[in-house]
Specification:
Elements (H helix, E strand, L loop, with lengths): L8 H7 L8 E2 L16 E5 L5 E5 L13 E3 L2 E2 L7 H27 L9 H8 L7 H5 L25 H6 L29 H14 L8 E5 L1 H13 L8 E5 L6 H7 L6 E6 L8 E6 L19 E5 L18 E5 H4 L8 E5 L2 H15 L4 H16 L13 H23 L2 E2 L5 E4 L4 E4 L8 E2 L4
Parallel strand pairs: 7-8, 7-9, 9-10, 10-11
Antiparallel strand pairs: 1-4, 2-3, 4-5, 6-12, 11-12, 13-16, 14-15
Helix pairs in contact: 6-11, 7-10
Length: 464
């Protein structure tokens, strides 16, 4: 029996690699005449890999391609006729493609609240401009804020510092920034700094603003940058918790405390630390106390309540700015946390910073941020530096025209107005009460100033 003949490249091309080739390939006759099939020889060629390959010799004659016709079971099939099995496959694919949009439409209509799916009606409603908006305002991206009526005084859903927008609209280009496409491409910013991914300009503007306001000491401190102060809060817990301890370090805070403290502390179920509740009821020597001052939610000025050689404290001073409270002293704690969200209102920039005395603690906090996010957005740092610089410019002596753009003055007026409205609403309702107003000597404003916290803590009244 004759050895099986190897398939040629022409045969593979003709069959598309989908069906076995026929036993014979019949090319068109030379010059349109004669029906004899030319002899076919395989010519070895060298591939890039160095091994032999085969290609079919071209037919002798000026006829059309070798693939013009085939002989199957002794019968000739006209050129160009598509096999029946290909027709079926093509029809099946076409029907599926045509039916897919109909199925998706039906699914979306019947499941309007399915996570991640928005019906056409919902999309039109979400994209429609709000009443009273036009021009650029109507085309502006969504703020993501819950919808409220025009006469709403209080939104209890979520805090969002957009009250500062009016101020920043008036500053013109003082806080504008253009970053070229080639800039901020490297991971590294200042390799000689403990916080090697922090932009030097951000470091400079943080120190400048604190010296201007007088709310925190910066000389002898390491400045660290984070993606919001929450990341730095986590970094502090990591840095202060001994890795070789038998039990996780207890994390406490005096009640009422910021609602996110317990959730953030236990979110990853770390073996290094765990939430232990109210500092007033804590018993033990090893702990990390979170001191929020002014406190969220009641606005009280606080100090640490625990004292132990093995205990540590982290001071969250997000609201220690002149628009919220009198600046009575220059804070000089071991670890102090701040954020642009509360200081300037730029919550969406997601930048916070820490002032840390101890170099080793600063190094460990930096390591946490490195492992967590491999640094912090340079674009956000540069924008935050520009914003902080604009705030300081407004209070520089001899600042000229820029001096009229004073953020803390604007913020205090806004907070006084909002607290007045809130107290009026509480008095009119009779359903809840607010803490009594307090005041103190503000070293920044050089006058007695009321305490107007950025958060409120209401007590419900028992109704008869």
């Amino acid at each position: 029996m004759a050895a099986p003949r190897r398939r040629t490249s022409a045969e593979l091309q003709m069959n598309g690699g989908l069906m076995p080739p026929s036993a014979h390939v019949i090319p068109s006759s030379r010059g349109g005449g004669g029906g004899g099939a030319p002899s076919r020889e395989d010519h070895p060629v060298t591939t890039n890999g160095g091994g032999p390959a085969h290609r079919a010799a071209k037919p002798r004659g000026g006829g059309s391609s070798v693939c013009s016709a085939t002989k199957v079971s002794g019968r000739r099939r006209p050129a160009g006729r598509m096999p029946l099995w290909r027709v079926f496959i093509f029809a099946s694919v076409a029907l599926n493609v045509a039916a897919l949009p109909l199925l998706l439409h039906q699914y979306i209509v019947n499941q309007p609240h399915h996570p991640g799916v928005v019906s056409p009606d919902q999309q039109r409603h979400a994209c429609a401009p709000q009443p009273g908006t036009s021009g650029a305002a109507a085309r502006a991206p969504s703020t993501g804020k819950p919808s409220v009526t025009s006469d709403s005084v209080i939104n209890l859903d979520h805090g969002d510092p957009t009250m500062f927008e009016a101020f920043w609209r008036e500053t013109g280009d003082a806080a504008e920034l253009v970053i070229p496409g080639w800039q901020t491409m490297s991971y590294f910013s200042d390799v000689g700094n403990v916080c090697w991914f922090m932009e030097p300009l951000f470091d400079q503007q943080v120190r400048r603003l604190h010296r201007t306001v007088g709310n925190a000491a910066v000389d002898g401190y390491h400045v660290l940058v984070g993606t919001g102060s929450t990341q730095l809060f986590m970094a502090a817990l990591y840095a202060l918790s001994p890795a070789d301890a038998d039990q996780p370090t207890s994390v406490v805070s005096t009640a009422p405390y910021y609602s996110s403290y317990p959730a953030v502390t236990d979110f990853l179920r770390s073996g290094l630390f765990r939430w232990a509740g109210d500092a007033n009821s804590f018993v033990g020597d090893s702990y990390i106390e979170l001191v929020c001052s002014p406190n969220n939610p009641d606005g009280a000025i606080r100090d640490a309540v625990l004292s132990s050689g093995a205990g540590k404290a982290v001071h969250d001073l997000a609201y220690y700015w002149p628009q919220y409270t009198p600046i009575t002293r220059r804070a000089d704690h071991d670890i102090m946390l701040f954020t642009v969200s509360k200081s300037t209102g730029h919550a969406g920039t997601r930048i916070g910073w820490a002032l840390v005395k101890d170099r080793e603690v600063a190094r460990r906090m930096t390591k946490f941020v490195e492992l967590n996010t491999i640094g912090v957005s340079k674009d956000s740092q540069l924008r935050a530096a520009k914003v902080l610089g604009a705030v300081s410019d407004g209070y520089d002596v001899g600042g000229g025209g820029a001096s009229r753009h004073r953020l803390f003055d604007f913020g205090r007026r806004k907070m006084v107005e909002r607290w007045r409205m809130l107290r009026e609403a509480a008095a009119a309702s009779g359903a809840f009460s607010l803490p009594a107003e307090t005041s103190g000597q503000c070293n920044f404003a050089n006058e007695t100033a009321a305490n107007n916290p950025g958060t409120s803590y209401a007590h419900g009244q028992t109704m008869a």
